[in-house]
TrEMBL record:
It comes from the Eukaryota. This is Uncharacterized protein. The lineage of its organism: Eukaryota, Metazoa, Ecdysozoa, Arthropoda, Chelicerata. InterPro entries: DUF1759. It holds the Pfam family DUF1759. It comes from Araneus ventricosus (Orbweaver spider).
Length: 214
């Protein structure tokens, strides 16, 4: 875990330096410099995403919420940086503005309406994981008619509360479904924690009163 924290520190320093550089240079920056800023911003976003995917898998359960909030803050900072660069690029390069609109339209078109399936929900209670997993595998994962990106959309729609926080930062794509599913597997398929949760649930049930003797 320490190497991941060290890499996170390095990336956060790189993000701060890029943000400062963009702030000081963007007013008079030419198109080629703006495209370089845009490229570096995208690279940092991808680096942070891969880093936090690894952190989410290896961190302690009690650390997960803090890391998720940290990633959300970083994502907001990168989005703001990207927005500032794109605004300047749209002013200096009209063709970039057209390209951005086309990319946006392509993204909207790719967000197709999902076919109706009977999908279970899971809120992160470990004692419910096995039932959810079996139902999701049967209704979604083994369904050959839908793509992995659709499966990831179903998965995100099925998760609630803590379970959703584990995968909410993962963008929708075919490649990312296996990553999201593995994150949930690694988090909730802990046999010891699962057994303890089931025993705790059984012990918390009220005692069944014995039938009155005749």
């Amino acid at each position: 875990m320490e190497p991941l924290k060290t890499k996170k520190k390095v990336l956060k320093t790189a993000l701060t330096r890029l943000r400062d550089k963009v702030a000081s240079a963007i007013k008079d920056a030419e198109s080629i410099a703006l495209r370089l800023f845009e490229s570096k911003t995208s690279d940092l976003f991808n680096d942070f995403k891969l880093l936090f995917d690894s952190i989410f898998v290896t961190c302690k359960p009690e650390e997960l919420d803090d890391f998720i909030r940290e990633k959300e803050t970083i994502d907001d900072s990168i989005d703001e940086l990207r927005l500032n660069v794109n605004r300047k690029m749209n002013k200096t390069d009209p063709e970039h503005s057209i390209s951005s609109v086309s990319s946006c339209n392509a993204s909207i078109l790719s967000d197709v309406k999902l076919p109706t399936l009977s999908v279970p929900t899971f809120n992160g209670k470990i004692e419910n994981w096995i039932m959810f997993k079996d139902m999701f595998v049967a209704s979604v994962i083994e369904n050959k008619s839908i793509s992995n990106s659709m499966k990831l959309q179903y998965l995100k729609a099925s998760c609630r509360d803590e379970a959703l926080r584990v995968i909410q930062s993962i963008s929708i794509s075919d490649a990312n479904f296996d990553i999201a599913w593995k994150l949930l597997e690694d988090r909730y398929s802990n046999k010891r924690e699962l057994l303890n949760a089931i025993i705790k649930k059984l012990l918390s049930q009220p005692n069944i009163s014995e039938s009155s003797s005749i």
